[in-house]
UniProtKB/TrEMBL annotation:
<keyword id="KW-0963">Cytoplasm</keyword>
<keyword id="KW-0611">Plant defense</keyword>
<dbReference type="Pfam" id="PF01397">
    <property type="entry name" value="Terpene_synth"/>
</dbReference>
<dbReference type="GO" id="GO:0006952">
    <property type="term" value="P:defense response"/>
</dbReference>
<dbReference type="GO" id="GO:0010333">
    <property type="term" value="F:terpene synthase activity"/>
</dbReference>
<dbReference type="GO" id="GO:0000287">
    <property type="term" value="F:magnesium ion binding"/>
</dbReference>
<dbReference type="InterPro" id="IPR050148">
    <property type="entry name" value="Terpene_synthase-like"/>
</dbReference>
<feature type="domain" description="Terpene synthase N-terminal">
    <location>
        <begin position="42"/>
        <end position="209"/>
    </location>
</feature>
<comment type="similarity">
    <text>Belongs to the terpene synthase family.</text>
</comment>
<protein>
    <recommendedName>
        <fullName>Sesquiterpene synthase</fullName>
    </recommendedName>
</protein>
<dbReference type="InterPro" id="IPR044814">
    <property type="entry name" value="Terpene_cyclase_plant_C1"/>
</dbReference>
<feature type="domain" description="Terpene synthase metal-binding">
    <location>
        <begin position="266"/>
        <end position="505"/>
    </location>
</feature>
<dbReference type="GO" id="GO:0016102">
    <property type="term" value="P:diterpenoid biosynthetic process"/>
</dbReference>
<dbReference type="Pfam" id="PF03936">
    <property type="entry name" value="Terpene_synth_C"/>
</dbReference>
<keyword id="KW-0479">Metal-binding</keyword>
<dbReference type="InterPro" id="IPR034741">
    <property type="entry name" value="Terpene_cyclase-like_1_C"/>
</dbReference>
<dbReference type="GO" id="GO:0005737">
    <property type="term" value="C:cytoplasm"/>
</dbReference>
Length: 561
């Protein structure tokens, strides 16, 4: 079945109605972010109306996809030249197809790592370095020293080589001085050349300057790159057709998940009075999908979406809506995770709390007897979270500003929700995730700590002005201003440097041998969630003011490829 027929089936299965058209103008964004209340949902009950294709139609689509997978597998196995291996694997990864060929790609990367290559070609050296480090190979950055002239500048003859060096340089660790220099040099050169470039190279350079390739959310990169790959004269038709069909099947799955979590959210609202909180269930699913997008992570996405919705509600309660006394009562109830604790709570908290406990029970049922133990770790995460919230309330009520940014981060990196997101993402995964995995994560290893730091600092940069309009504890930016006697602008510049340090620290852990970091999937998943944090806080707080990401959400869920 050709892909155009498959997509026609997909289009016929989508919702008959469309989400409300909401302008994404900067004026609306400013109005929404400055308002004392959060803007309403951009999606409402849209996904409740989703009608999937019939089982027979879906079977046809999957059957065609399986045929194409084998065609591409033969292509992979027939690759032997270094330049072709590099191009093929990067293409498969950008198109979101690499998870189907993990064994074959591992063999190709092993070959690439051990075989000779042309170390005089900057473009090929950059691509090889990028690909190997992206996949956890600790290759030395010293190879780039050979490409510097007497003045210390990199010798690059064309824009493509500059671009690939730029992307490679962002896979740096602390101490990779040559890559810091490459980042500075290529950024300056690419910016100066951009106005003279024409599409599609101009588009690729512009996108890279906004977000380097390694830091892009993989599923969003897939959505965008399919259209780019389609225009390439060197494209492989089987790969292109498989990429389109695979993405279409993913959209169907995502819409089914959204129907489920929207119904769950509607039921929660019916049982609780949550009109004060941010109505962002679709945005949460979008965010979580960025961290674990593959089809076999469906249960992970569903559980994550529900748990992160709870985190958002608790954040709104502790941050802006509830009294200190009520917050303390709720924290004490969460410490027990027992229905009997509900009697001390005001009604709106009581109803929420009981549904909170009921959802834990349903998660245990979904996980089954062999994995239900994982819910214990989720409960522990929420206990630690509200403990941190209570500490921040104390700061707020006593008008206390931590004396150093590190003192602040000792609490605030635990309350941004990043640790909870990363740990809970593994709850719905397969048997490769064990009790030992969770025990290790609960020690807050460096890669998790760096991710939480990045998330906290990124959040503070874009949300400081909004949050400080009310009664709120001091953020890391204000703490840094007080500690060093700087302006907000200078403090923000320094915070951005600290974010870059966090990326380097994560990369250092990512390149550590797998035996020392539990499993490769853990490190890769944490890196994926770091990418989502970068995306969600790139322009503004896109979770709170979600007009900014509405078009991309439509591209991921609604618009046919």
């Amino acid at each position: 079945m050709p892909v155009d027929i498959a997509i026609a089936i997909y289009q016929n299965s989508k919702m008959a109605n469309t989400p409300a058209k909401i302008c994404s103008s900067s004026q609306q964004v400013r109005e929404a972010s400055s308002s004392s209340t959060f803007h309403p949902s951009l999606w409402g009950n849209f996904f409740l109306n989703y009608q999937p294709p019939t089982a027979s139609k879906r079977a046809l689509m999957k059957e065609r996809a399986e045929v194409l997978k084998e065609e591409v597998r033969k292509l992979i196995k027939g690759s032997s030249e270094v330049s072709k291996i590099v191009d093929l694997v990067i293409t498969l990864q950008r198109l979101g197809l690499d998870s189907y060929y993990e064994t074959e790609i591992h063999e190709l990367l092993h070959t690439l790592y051990n075989n000779d290559y042309n170390d005089k070609d900057l473009n090929q050296v950059s691509l090889r370095f990028y690909l190997l480090r992206q996949n956890g190979y600790d290759v030395s950055s010293d190879i780039f020293v050979h490409f510097k002239d007497e003045k210390g500048n990199f010798v690059a003859d064309d824009t493509t080589s500059l671009l690939n060096l730029y992307n490679a340089a962002y896979l740096k660790t602390r101490g990779d001085k040559i890559l810091d220099e490459a980042t500075e040099f290529t950024t300056r050169r690419l910016k100066s050349e951009l106005e003279h470039l024409k599409p599609p190279l101009a588009d690729e350079v512009s996108l890279a300057l906004e977000t380097p390739l390694f830091r892009r959310v993989r599923i969003l990169e897939t959505r965008n790159y399919i259209l780019v790959y389609e225009t390439k004269a060197t494209r492989n038709e089987a790969i292109l057709e498989l990429a389109k069909l695979n993405f279409t099947l993913l959209q169907l799955l995502y819409c089914e998940e959204l129907k489920h979590v929207t119904q769950w959210w509607k039921e929660l609202n019916d049982e609780s009075n949550l009109s004060f909180t941010r109505d962002r269930i679709v945005e949460i699913h979008f965010w979580m999908t960025g961290g674990c997008s593959e089809p076999h992570y469906s249960l992970s996405r569903i559980i994550l979406t529900k748990m992160v919705e709870f985190i958002a509600i608790l954040d709104d309660m502790f941050d802006t809506y509830s009294t200190t006394d009520d917050c303390i009562k709720l924290a004490e109830a969460i410490y027990t995770c027992n229905e009997s604790a509900a009697v001390t709570l005001p009604k709106y908290m009581k109803d929420f709390y009981l549904y909170f406990l009921k959802t834990f029970d349903s998660c245990e049922d979904e996980l089954g007897p062999n994995k239900s133990y994982r819910v214990f770790y989720v409960k522990e995460l929420f206990k630690r979270l509200v403990q941190g919230y209570c500490k921040e309330i104390k700061w707020r009520d006593e008008h206390y500003i931590p004396k150093t940014i590190e003192e602040h981060l000792e609490v605030s990196r635990k309350t941004v929700g990043a640790i909870e997101v990363a740990c809970i993402s593994f709850v719905g995964m397969g048997d490769h995730i064990t009790k030992g995995t969770f025990d290790w994560l609960f020690t807050h290893p460096e890669i998790l700590k760096s991710f939480a730091t990045l998330s906290r600092l990124s959040n503070d940069i874009v949300s400081t002005k909004r949050e400080q309009t009310g009664d709120h504890h001091a953020c890391t930016i204000q703490c840094y201003m007080l500690q060093h006697g700087t302006t907000m602008q200078d403090a923000c510049s320094k915070i951005k440097e600290l974010i870059e340090h966090s990326w380097k620290d994560m990369m250092n852990e990512y390149l550590t041998p797998a035996d020392d970091r539990q499993t490769t999937v853990v490190a890769r998943t944490i890196i994926d969630f770091a990418r989502t944090a970068d995306y969600m806080y790139k322009q503004s707080d896109s979770f709170t003011v979600s007009h900014i990401i509405k078009d991309m959400m439509s591209s991921l869920y609604v618009d046919p490829i």
